[in-house]
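Narrative summary of target 7.
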Amino acid sequence: MQNHLITGWGVIRQNTVIVDGQVKEIHEKFITFAEFIKFLYKKEQVGYPKFYKMDNLSKLGFLTAELVLKNRDLKNNYRSEEIGVVIANSSSSLDTDFEYFETIKDKNNYYPSPSVFVYTLSNILIGEICIRNQLKGENAFLVSEYFDPGLITSIVDDLMRNNRIQVCICGWVELFREKYESFICIVEKEERLKHNNENTLNYCLLTKENLSRLCLNNGI
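Modeled conformation, tokenized:
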């Protein structure tokens, strides 16, 4: 029987940033999400100009993934095809949908924005993470009313047990207007980690209960 381990995780929620259990200090006060996420991007020195073109949902998920992946270089241990992404939220791309609607609602000032329209699909968030990190494994974007740790766990477990992927970037990325929260974690096979001579005692077993506990402890 294979065990899958949570080997890293991060949270961004209402101006709070936590990576692997450590709260990152934010010395500024922000009124809007746009101000906060721009500050965090610059503070972390991500250096990816395309970030500024993304919609807010993609910025949130992308930057959370960046913070988690910064501490773990998956590309050294896995091929691009072995790394998957599974993310869920409750409002899909609704925040961007409203922004796009503003460009088309007035028949006398009808000016659809292609740069906004491209983000009216929530799985574009996954695309941004994959392009940045050159990932080519299985991926899925799920929409559910609430964060469902059991659903995420079962999908990741199925993909890994059937050797569709060897590692998965997964979690919850929800944003609508000024309310936002994201939880991203990395899940890897225990046997693969032991093969790479890593200390698996520091990692958390992927179970519905453990995933739920991590999220609840961080307000997700």
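The radius of gyration is 18 Å.
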